[in-house]
Every structure is written in C-alpha cells, then in structure tokens.
C-alpha cells in the first residue's frame, strides 16, 4: 500500500559504493541472484514465522521521512496550522502501523479508523476556531495517506471549516493542485517532499534531506516558500525503507538492529529480498553494505515491500526483506 507514495526507492544522496553495479551473478531458477560482493562466514538462514519486526536503523541509513502537513500558504492561518499540528503531536510510527492495520487487515474504513483514533487521543478537544470557509484535503492513492487525510478533516472541522477529502493520486498530481489552491492541505513526507521540491525548483544535485529531521524540515520550508506551500510540525511517525525479519529469526539469532544483523549474519546463508533495483540503491542493499558492512549470500528479486517480500519472510525463503516502516505487517494483535 506504499507504492503510491514513492514510485521507486528514493535515490537521494550519493552513498552507493564503487563497484556496486559490477560483478552481478547470474539469476538462478528460484529468482535468487548471486551476491555482488562475496559473503564471508556462515550467515543466518531464513526462519519462517508469522510476526514480522523491523530491525532498528541504528546508524541512520534512511532519511527523515516524517509525516508533515503541507498547506497552501494562503490558507495557512494559525488556527489551521495548530489544528493539524495536534495530529503530528500524537502520531508515532507504532500508532501509524496500528492505523494501517485497522484498514488493511481489520477492513475498517479510513474514516472509521481516523475517528476512533481521534476520539481515543482527544485530538479535537480544545481546537481553536478559525475564520471558517471551505477546505479540501488531498490524499494520495494509498491507505496511509487516506487515513491521515481523514484525521486532518476531523481537526479542520473542529476548527470551524467545511472540509472534504479528495483522493487525487501521486505527488506529481496533487502537488501542483496544492500550489494552485485546488486543494488546500495534504499529508506529506518530509525528506521525499523536500527532494521533490528541490528538483522542481532547480535546487541543484546535492541532496537537501538527511536523517536529521530538523535540518530536513528547515530545507523543506525554504523550498516550500518558493512555491507557496507552508508546512506544519513533523510527526514522530516516519514511513521509510525498513528491513524486516520474522520474530523467530530475530529470537534465534539475537538480532534487533541492523548493526547486529551485519555483525552476526554476514555470510552465505543470509538471503536479502526486495525489488530488483534494491541491489544498486543507496537506501537498500548498497546502503546496507556501505553503512553497516552487511554481506549477504544471495539476493532474491521480489517486490517493493509488498506481498511477495512478506510471504518470502513468513515462508522462510528470505532472511531479511524490505518492508516499509509503517506497514500493517508489523502490527501486533
């Protein structure tokens, strides 16, 4: 459900090691490819299991893709910003995982999941009234964006506005609509939006986002000023590349972080799963090699955090796989 947010794994920051594209082995009949760099040691064979956990990115490989409200500057009154910031103040990654589960697994509507969350957290309590008027909240075409858009609707309604939610599609469609005022608010992701606006405004080749959320948001706000978009406060919740293992795998090998995975599981038995482009992308296999020193025995070409990767983990055909950090698969009962 995350593919609508990022069409591919972001290519931000030139961290790919030299030689990453060289020496690829031939694909086997199983779709598993030989490693680009020889693995040493035994590694950690896959372990089947149902519950998935995300290994902690303890060396900050990923950029700060925190949820943040994007607002057309003409309607970014103090009351609008304050109402939306109340969502950011309570939304962290585990809560967002549970919200995604409510819709993707428990089959609730985005509206129902948002209303339950709002009521449980008292989000609409004490919201200051604004001048009123009509506001359209845009949403991307994936579950998470729809849920957050519904949370924004609840907040802005409490602030005295007449609010509708409109699903628009991907960023290439809704960002111009936000600039023009055809929609007034949309949930965004700090690092990804910063790089998008940098490309649109001709900001050069150097990345403006980083693992540092404060620096990333400062850059984002500067770029937003150029196109008439303001931003509220970032939430603690982040939707970014994450690397999942089964709980059984984590317990057997004693790994909870990517550093522990590299230290204990570099070797021939370890199978990494993800989309084909993962092998050369700086926030996927190439980044794991350079930042953590992880060496895997083989790579299995699957999908981008989708059912193939999650099935591979649960069935015990891959050791570790790329599954986005807010995926419902991480939810506990």
UniProtKB/TrEMBL annotation:
<feature type="domain" description="ABC-type glycine betaine transport system substrate-binding">
    <location>
        <begin position="134"/>
        <end position="331"/>
    </location>
</feature>
<dbReference type="InterPro" id="IPR007210">
    <property type="entry name" value="ABC_Gly_betaine_transp_sub-bd"/>
</dbReference>
<dbReference type="Pfam" id="PF04069">
    <property type="entry name" value="OpuAC"/>
</dbReference>
<keyword id="KW-0732">Signal</keyword>
<dbReference type="GO" id="GO:0022857">
    <property type="term" value="F:transmembrane transporter activity"/>
</dbReference>
<dbReference type="GO" id="GO:0043190">
    <property type="term" value="C:ATP-binding cassette (ABC) transporter complex"/>
</dbReference>
<protein>
    <submittedName>
        <fullName>Glycine/betaine ABC transporter substrate-binding protein</fullName>
    </submittedName>
</protein>
<feature type="domain" description="ABC-type glycine betaine transport system substrate-binding">
    <location>
        <begin position="52"/>
        <end position="117"/>
    </location>
</feature>
<feature type="signal peptide">
    <location>
        <begin position="1"/>
        <end position="22"/>
    </location>
</feature>
